[in-house]
Design a protein that fits this description.
342 residues; alpha/beta; Rossmann fold; six-stranded parallel β-sheet; five-stranded antiparallel β-sheet; 8 helices; MoCofactor_Util/Proc; XdhC_Rossmann_dom; XdhC_CoxI; Xanthine dehydrogenase accessory factor
Length: 342
């Protein structure tokens, strides 16, 4: 979670006045690289770095370059070529073999801290936006934030020509907001895995013994019956919902409350026979739900304990939210699937 952009922005925002900062961004890659264009991390003047631009192999050297940016107050670009025997990345034994171009920018009052405060505010308001960073020619540091809607959940960062210069345009979305109906023992690893992805998590359970905040750190717990979900002011902010109260009537009430929401994912724990029973109690047919119902929930990973079920559910939800198929990258007997962005 500490590597996610919202967490990095919160860290910077809390310490923006008592530390100096440099923003590091991958703006171009060629061939296989651990992180793609648009990846960001932060460096502070205490010699610490936060986030990752590689698998951990380049960060110490990037930190060395960031120190120079602290002293000069000017942006700079660096390049690591894993395929060049004379390049530092090759000498480190970097295994990816690709080339990564990195932009280092100081966060200063003179450049409005690259508008990170605006970017943070947009994400807190759950707005999607484009973050634009100018690729410097003479060490300048410029950035902009524009609110927009993406045509695809798989929108990627790209270099564009803008105002007689090259800019990196990075699509940025707020973290998904997941609702878990049912806050029993098996919901704990589910919520923990969701939070570890940097997702926002809310729970709904009217039973006093469930949903204790000590078991769900960082989560919002609603002590209401699922049939009251429609009264929540933030109901429209949910991107996905997992119904797992282990009570037929509570699950049925949850499906009734969620049936018209434009969720990107709706899952119900349990086998097909239980799904049919819950739908019957809810007085609903599958086609009456505005979102496809995933039941049984999760990918077929094997395992039957709460941790395994949570992993299977988290993997399926992650795939759906990112427009992926959830299949292995190397199908049996098939070629390796690769995707190289800029």
């Amino acid at each position: 979670m500490a590597n996610q952009l919202p967490a990095l922005l919160e860290l910077w925002h809390r310490n923006r006045n008592n530390r100096s900062w440099v923003l590091g961004t991958v703006y171009k890659t060629v061939g296989p690289c651990y992180r793609k264009a648009g990846a960001m991390m932060l460096f502070d003047d205490l010699g610490k770095y936060h986030g990752l631009l590689s698998g951990g192999c380049l960060e110490a050297d990037i930190q060395r370059h960031a120190q120079r940016v602290f002293h000069s107050g000017r942006s700079k670009t660096i390049c690591y070529d894993g395929g060049d025997e004379d390049d530092f990345a090759f000498q480190l034994g970097i295994g990816c073999g690709g080339t990564v171009h990195i932009l280092l920018q100081p966060l200063l009052p003179e450049n409005d801290y690259l508008h990170l405060a605006t970017l943070r505010a947009r994400l807190l308001q759950r707005q999607t936006c484009h973050y634009l960073q100018k690729i410097p020619v003479m060490g300048e540091s410029l950035a902009r934030v524009s609110v927009c809607k993406f045509e695809s959940v798989r929108a990627r960062a790209r270099l564009i020509e803008h105002e007689n210069g090259m800019w990196l345009q990075t699509p940025i979305s707020p973290p998904p907001h997941i609702l878990i109906v049912g806050a029993g023992v098996d919901a704990r690893p589910m919520a923990q895995l969701f939070r570890y992805q940097g997702w926002k998590v809310s729970l709904c359970d009217p039973r006093p013994v469930n949903g204790r905040e000590a078991y769900f750190p960082g989560c919002r717990c609603y002590r209401c019956h699922p049939d009251k979900l429609s009264q929540l002011q933030n109901l429209s902010t949910f991107d996905a919902a997992v119904v797992m109260s282990h009570n037929l009537h509570l699950d049925a009430a949850a499906l009734r409350s969620l049936r018209r929401l434009p969720l990107r994912y709706l899952g119900l724990l349990g086998p097909v026979s239980r799904r049919d029973r819950v739908l019957q109690l809810a007085g609903l047919r599958m086609e009456e739900l505005s979102t496809q119902l995933h039941a049984p929930i999760g990918l077929n990973l094997g395992g039957e304990l709460p941790e395994s079920i949570a992993l299977a559910a988290c993997a399926e939800i992650h795939a759906v939210l990112h427009g992926a198929d959830g299949l292995r990258l190397r199908p049996a007997g098939g070629r390796v699937i690769t995707e190289y962005e800029i």
